[in-house]
Write a structure and sequence with these properties.
This protein has about 170 residues and is mostly beta strands. It has 1 helix and 13 strands; from the N terminus they run H-E-E-E-E-E-E-E-E-E-E-E-E-E.
């Protein structure tokens, strides 16, 4: 039985590590089209087609896109505390524009700064999440929108788990 649990834990660790440490947004930027991606297929000529909630769009030039990456696990914080969170921009090989990030937190949470810019070569942005002393206990989403100048925006949420102050 011990061998089973050891194998199970090892398998779980490998799955977790291979999944990565972040969640990723939809593609944004001039090479991206459509939002709300549900299913992606590749045609015989090598073009990618994405089926969205209500329509099918061509994915455009993936080298001219970006995505926004946030932590995949919730960020734990106690009422009245502050914690630093890193948000990253992942760029297509031909996407050089600045990406302006905007953060929208629910009542009781505050993100500082409320907006930031990820410039090429400096794609990690650190923000501070602060829970008010009377913040509602539980898990909330902080919405992050990335705007790359032209084309669709990229958007993703990260979770903040507020715990009761000791």
């Amino acid at each position: 039985m011990r061998r089973f649990w050891t194998s199970f834990l090892a398998f779980s660790l490998v799955c977790t590590l291979s999944a990565g440490c972040s969640r990723e947004s939809n593609k944004g930027g001039p090479g991206a089209t459509g939002t709300g991606k549900k299913e992606t297929t590749t045609t015989s000529d090598g073009r990618t087609t994405t089926t969205t909630d209500s329509k099918t769009t061509d994915s455009g030039d993936r080298t001219q896109t970006f995505t926004v990456k946030v932590p995949s696990t919730s960020t734990g914080i106690r009422q009245g505390e502050r914690k630093e969170v890193t948000v990253s921009v992942s760029r297509g090989s031909n996407f050089d524009a600045d990406v302006h990030l905007m953060f929208k937190a629910p009542s009781g949470l505050k993100v500082e700064p409320a907006s930031a810019t990820a410039k090429k070569g400096n794609d990690d942005v650190r923000v501070t999440v602060e829970a008010a002393p009377d913040a509602t206990v539980g898990t909330s989403d902080v919405h992050v929108t990335g705007h790359g100048g032209t084309g669709p925006d990229a958007a993703v949420d990260f979770k903040v788990d507020v715990k009761k102050k000791d």
